[in-house]
Amino acid sequence: MAGGAAFSDAKPTPILKDELDIVIPTIRNLDFLEMWRPYFEPYHLIIVQDGDPSRTVRVPDGFDYELFNRNDINRILGPKASCISFKDSACRCFGYLVSKKKYIFTIDDDCFVAKDPSGKEINALEQHVKNLLNPSTPLFFNTLYDPYREGADFVRGYPFSLREGVPTAVSHGLWLNIPDYDAPTQLAKPLERNTRFVDAVLTIPKGTLFPMCGMNLAFNRQLIGPAMYFGLMGDGQPIGRYDDMWAGWCMKVNLALSIVALNWIVVRKVICDHLGYGVKTGLPYIWHSKASNPFVNLKKEYNGIFWQEELIPFFQSAVLTKECTTVQKCYLELSKQVKAKLGKIDPYFLKLADAMVTWVEAWDELNGSGENSSNLTNDPEK
Ligand SMILES: O=c1ccn([C@@H]2O[C@H](COP(=O)(O)OP(=O)(O)O[C@H]3O[C@@H](CO)[C@H](O)[C@H]3O)[C@@H](O)[C@H]2O)c(=O)[nH]1
Ligand SMILES: [Mn+2]
């Protein structure tokens, strides 16, 4: 068995029912929970009701939950509620803010239990827990995929010095049936369905960005919660459906640290990459039966499709001062870079940069200051 595995696949996966919250954004209903009942019932649900707060959302009996609508968000955050999006799935990040647990699993209300090729139901939550509890390998690619899975290992030539791996911060699951395509692709391929079940979990290599989808996502809130802000989207904003993308880029970003005043450059990668935290993608699959309208989506995504051609180079070359000793401080520094370098693309980014600051203030207000939470250390054990 590979070195460093937190636990062997052969043993039952810890339930973590007291260490994990399930966050669900909804503008619809929660009937989908009936299908997930065997897997979700032991957990606490945080339901973020978007849209009209006077609408009653019925939660099926037997679930332990909190439900927050817009009135609750405004009551809890006061003026800081301005950083939580309205009428966009970005509202889900409010659930990350109010949770007190170590782990988060977030899922959309049109995602159902999928079956593997043998016809067996997939317990997506269990696989996410396995992904999060086992190390990642961002520093050197293992060609036999996840070396910590039962029946796999590191291949010949893999440095033994790297076989302990690093802590996993994010587990990014995938989708059978309706894949997470952007609106142009959906419009071009309206009948395309994803029938390909790939039995693999991959670590996204260090320094590589990726399009994070919030549909079937789990993360270690204690490690990188403050970086998982889903931005300002939806009502009153010039962009929508780039919430999860924005969070994924900020969370993963490789920040080069340049201290011009001291004429030396120390390349530091904060948040996931620098700390050597890993981001995994692949299993588990859910069954996505999309309910959103591609034409409406096109309107929401238009600016994002255009702007991201400038956003990606920004994230690939962002810089950071060395005083950033917590995820919060790194995030605040990133917000300064957003204001300085992206404001010229559109004034929206000036507003977004301010909202990033408000988010961190709200995080610290509800969860304690940056100094004693989500500290950046080079020692993943701390
Ligand atoms: O205004 C809204 C719209 C939706 N929601 C809730 O958010 C999720 C996702 O919504 P939906 O399934 O309609 O959208 P998709 O196109 O399938 O979602 C993909 O795009 C991302 C949007 O950023 C999303 O994360 C991806 O999965 C559902 O639970 C809706 O109820 C909302 O709260 N407010
Ligand atoms: Mn959907």
TrEMBL record:
GO cellular component: cytosol; Golgi apparatus
GO molecular function: UDP-arabinopyranose mutase activity
Pfam families the UniProt entry points to: RGP
Recorded superkingdom: Eukaryota
Glycan attachment residues as annotated in the record: R156
Keyword annotations: Cell wall biogenesis/degradation, Glycoprotein, Golgi apparatus, Isomerase
Site entry (Required for activity), positions: R156, R163
Entry's Gene Ontology BP terms: cell wall organization; plant-type cell wall organization or biogenesis; UDP-L-arabinose metabolic process
Primary residence: Golgi
Catalytic activity line of the entry: UDP-beta-L-arabinofuranose = UDP-beta-L-arabinopyranose
Subcellular location field: Golgi apparatus
EC identifiers of the protein: 5.4.99.30
Protein purpose: Probable UDP-L-arabinose mutase involved in the biosynthesis of cell wall non-cellulosic polysaccharides.
PANTHER family, A to Z: ALPHA-1,4-GLUCAN-PROTEIN SYNTHASE, UDP-ARABINOSE MUTASE
Family label: Belongs to the RGP family.
Protein name per its UniProtKB record: UDP-arabinopyranose mutase
